[in-house]
Design brief:
This protein is of the alpha/beta class. The chain is about 35% helix and about 30% strand. The protein is built from 6 helices and 7 strands, in the order H-H-E-H-E-H-E-E-H-E-H-E-E.
Length: about 200
Amino acid sequence: MTRHAASMPPEYFEAMFLGTPDPWDLETSAYEQAKYRHSIEALGARRYAAGLEVGCAKGVLTRSLAGKVASLFSLDVSGTALRAARRRCADLDHVGFANMRFPAQAPDRDFDLIVLSEVAYYWDDDDLAQTGVWLQEHLVPGGDLLLVHWTGETDYPQNGDEVVNKLHAIVGKQVSVSIAERRMHYRLDLWRKTR
């Protein structure tokens, strides 16, 4: 399988969401639902002040994350996906959305929870490096970074293991590993910023 060399462009994701009502079966798959439950359980009983979700798609995980934070800011590159996410979360006043191409477009504020779920393997090495620098500047000490990624083969610029290893090479001196778990098709890593 030949991998893309550059980060996947916004048009790729917009075409996916225009082409089918539920790309990647995010709304209907038992696997996805179990992975979302695992993600929320990994955060434990902690409540966060400000959360960032990068790549929120149609907002399925967003609804669950909303119960963990006082304020949640969710991003996606697809306008079609964001319209669906806004409808799904319309009753949640503390959840905001933005059409942004992270990390080239990133919020200039700090967070104590940042979630990169099934998104970072779409980025090339330059975007991963930019993400690592942004994380160092915008994840507050004591804040958590949740990484959840498919570990199978893809044609994306990275695989799930490469994402975790490359990001850890950048931010590893500033974080402690709270959780590093592998399931049949994905890995979940939770890091806490120590300084």
